[in-house]
Write a structure and sequence with these properties.
751 residues, alpha/beta, Dimethylsulfoxide Reductase, domain 2, Barwin-like endoglucanases, 7-stranded mixed sheet, 30 strands, globular, binds iron/sulfur cluster
């Protein structure tokens, strides 16, 4: 990077977007010399309006964490030791080369974690990495908690990455299932200052209804909280749809000519009357009918289902019914209903509806024949693919910012499987439960040493927004883009010493080539040399970003559109630029082959048979069911090494209703043993009236009590791993998503 790209020892206040979660809050980072002294919410950020949560304010502690790796580690004689970058890449070339030679390329698995999508360089370089790996064994966090939505989006409107986002600032009625945004700050929905936005809802006469087996922090603030048995949201949503048909409340609005499959939907839900589903869900008939009428009668309403309702056995069917409800009540793509985002780095479809459609199952997993969805196999099938001998057995892995040994189901099995890999490259800033097994660890630079632009989550954002920031500190090692490029070049066989510029240049050439392709309706009379000259002084990631910005729907088209955006212009606005709320984009955004909303695609209708058979023969419900929960100070598995976030009383407790606790002889503060089909753990009991009787809850992401970790603070606040209990033998069959909620467990008091 040219010297003028980095601000050296930058005393002063730096404004940038928080990279820790989907909320993308604006931060004001106060620096003295080489120290971060304070992090506050940026009051002038027009999107987040000064909001910050406890995690964001610890970005300085994360930067200065002595356990954060600053250089690579290479395994020598069984121990992870410090090495030079050249030694690390030489070890990767030798290690992966040996595995490929003996077992072929399909013995490699690539695993990506959430932080990949929160940072600019990985978001831009992950595509080339996936291509260079050239393996079908591709796993990401999507099959842990969001693949049902991808699948439903792909099948119903033809684009698996276009998500329906509640228009929270304008809605009159918000129905939420399995979501707790006061703590999570939003999921598949970028809306910084969620608490503030929810507070405004009743002020304009709106209503919030939360459906959850626990009176969560969000449910406690709602106008109405409806307890529901874990994993049964789909039955209740189907009863809402059935009520709409039965009472003549279906109203497709302007999409009437663009909807196919209405009769099939009516038929699918015909048996799901409020009376039939009441004993299954635990929701009374009158509440169900009242909610269906409220959705149909509101001036604008939105139904939003997230992690709790999607990480269950019928996750896809739940996401399907949610989308159907929004469409049948005329609330899809309507102000105040659910809408879709328009990131300014993309162009806008304004042509005729219709496209190539969406397909799954183009290849299948080796052991159990799971179809790929979005090019991925289920996270829950990783262990079996690693353990089952035969051609194509996974023997090497590249893990990027992911901790599957704690975040995938059946932790203990995966822990054993990782220990037996022939070779493992980890891209991570910590030696954690997964990377302790690695042969080489490549740490990314601190997030404050990299350029910042929120690229990925603007596809879920309730407003079109853009903010760019240069690095706060000078980097101690190579850039993240260089690390990705070197790894890609090794995988392509170009050698451990290949110059990363080879890939940087290639990506720019590729992007410019695509832009100028006449078949792609190139904007204006753009010229390659002119573009290259304009990008000359920029860093590799800046070049790729500037290309997207200047040719997106707000772009300056390299001077051809007056007032348009470029990276340079964006940099003049350190608090970011707001481009307005979501706007109507359908039917032009329909990419199904028919050019219509396919309400009843074959994959979902076939999967519905599973739901229907459960209606006929409900499971016995005399045992306890385990659900997860989040905490504001916790971020999946990886921020437990920040003292500020983990200090105080343990938050890793088993929540249980006092009546259940009494029946089982469990005292508050005592320890109990929780057992599931796949494992067991010991944890402190916390009784709470907020729990539905018959349901217990554990937070996820903990369990830092294993040998070999280099996370001193996390080890002192270890907690227990909830995924010791989750079952990799049960998945949402349609999408391959993991089942993390509604796990049958037994809870036993300990002496
Ligand atoms: S809500 Fe998310 S984006 Fe905002 S400060 Fe907290 S962690 Fe960062």
């Amino acid at each position: 990077m040219p010297a003028d790209q980095t601000q050296q020892s930058a005393t002063g206040i730096h404004f940038r977007t928080c990279p820790l979660c989907e909320a993308t809050c604006g931060l004001a980072i106060e620096v003295e010399g080489d120290r971060v002294v304070r992090v506050r919410g940026d009051a002038q950020d027009p999107f987040s309006r000064g909001f910050i949560c406890p995690k964001g304010s610890t970005l300085g502690e994360l930067h200065h964490d002595p356990d954060r790796l600053r250089g690579p580690l290479v395994r020598r004689d069984g121990r992870l030791e410090e090495a030079t970058w050249d030694e690390a890449f030489a070890a990767i070339e030798a290690g992966l080369g040996a595995v490929f030679e003996e077992h072929g390329r399909t013995s490699l698995a690539l695993l990506l974690g959430n932080p990949v999508t929160h940072h600019l360089a990985p978001a831009l370089y992950v595509g080339p990495l996936v291509r260079a790996c050239a393996t079908p064994n591709f796993f990401t966090a999507s099959t842990v908690d969001q693949m049902p939505q991808h699948l439903v989006s792909g099948l119903l409107w033809g684009d698996s990455n276009v998500f329906p986002i509640p228009d929270i600032d304008r809605t009159d009625h918000l129905l939420m299932l399995g979501a707790n945004p006061l703590v999570s700050n939003g999921s598949l929905m970028t809306a910084p200052d969620f608490p503030g936005r929810l507070k405004e809802l009743p002020r304009r006469g709106g209503r919030l209804v939360v459906v959850d087996p626990r009176r969560s922090e969000t449910a406690a603030r709602a106008d109405e909280h409806i307890f529901i048995k874990p994993g049964t949201d789909v039955f209740w949503l189907a009863a809402l749809v059935q009520t709409l048909f039965a009472e003549g409340l279906v109203s497709l609005g302007r999409f009437e000519p663009f909807v196919a499959g209405l009769d099939e939907i009516r038929e699918s839900v015909a048996d799901f009357t409020p009376e039939r589903v009441a004993p299954i869900c635990g929701v009374d008939v009158e509440t169900t009918r009242r909610e269906a009428r409220a959705l149909a009668g509101a001036a604008a309403a939105a139904v939003y289902g997230r992690v709790g309702s999607h990480t269950v056995e019928f996750g896809t069917a739940t996401a399907w019914m949610t989308a159907v409800l929004n469409l049948l009540t005329g609330n899809f793509d309507r102000s105040g209903g659910v809408m879709t985002s328009s990131p300014i780095t993309s162009r806008i479809d304004d042509g005729e509806p219709g496209g190539g459609g969406y397909r799954i199952g183009r290849w299948k997993s080796r052991v159990n024949g799971h179809p790929e969805v979005n090019g991925e196999f289920p996270a829950a099938s990783l262990a079996e693919e690693m353990e089952t001998p035969g051609k194509g057995q996974i023997r090497a892995a590249i893990t990027v910012a992911t901790n599957p040994v704690r975040s995938y189901p059946n932790s203990e099995r995966l822990d054993r499987a990782f220990a037996h890999l022939d070779f493992h490259v980890a891209f991570d800033i910590y030696v954690n439960e997964t990377t302790r097994h690695a042969d080489v660890i490549l740490p990314a630079p601190s997030t404050l040493e990299e350029e910042a632009y929120e690229l990925t989550f603007m596809v879920n954002a309730i407003r079109s927004f853009a903010k760019y920031a240069k690095p706060v500190f000078e980097r101690e090692g190579p850039s993240e883009a260089d690390l990705f490029a070197r790894l890609v070049l090794v995988l392509r066989g170009e050698g451990a010493t290949a110059d990363p510029e080879i890939l940087h240049d290639e990506l720019v050439e590729e992007a410019v080539g695509a832009l100028l392709d006449p078949a792609r309706d190139a904007p204006g009379d753009l010229d390659r040399d002119e573009i290259m000259r304009a990008l000359e002084a920029l860093s590799p990631v800046e070049k790729l970003l500037d290309l997207k910005l200047r040719t997106g729907w707000q772009g300056d088209l390299f001077g051809r559109r007056s007032g348009g955006v470029s990276l340079a212009k964006l940099a003049e606005h350190p608090h970011g630029v707001d481009f307005g709320p979501m706007v109507e984009r359908f039917p032009a955004r329909l990419k199904t082959e028919s050019g219509k909303f396919e309400l009843a695609p074959q994959v979902l209708v076939e999967d519905w048979a599973r739901v229907h058979s459960r209606l006929e023969a409900p499971l016995a419900s005399d045992g306890l069911l385990l659900i997860g929960r989040r905490h504001l100070r916790s971020n999946n598995t990886w921020m437990h090494n920040i003292e500020t976030l983990v200090s105080g009383r343990s938050r890793c407790t088993l929540l249980i209703h006092p009546g259940d606790a009494e029946r089982l002889g469990l005292a508050k503060g005592a320890f109990c043993e929780v057992r599931s089909r796949v494992g067991s753990l010991r944890v402190e009991v916390e009784t709470s009236e907020a729990m539905m009787p018959g349901v217990v809850s554990l937070p996820h992401g903990w369990g830092h009590d294993v040998a070999g970790l280099r996370m001193e603070v996390a080890a002192r606040h270890a907690g227990v791993a909830s995924n010791l209990l989750t079952d990799d033998g049960v998945i949402d069959r349609a999408s391959g998503n993991a089942v993390l909620n509604g796990i049958p467990v037994e809870v036993v008091a300990l002496a």
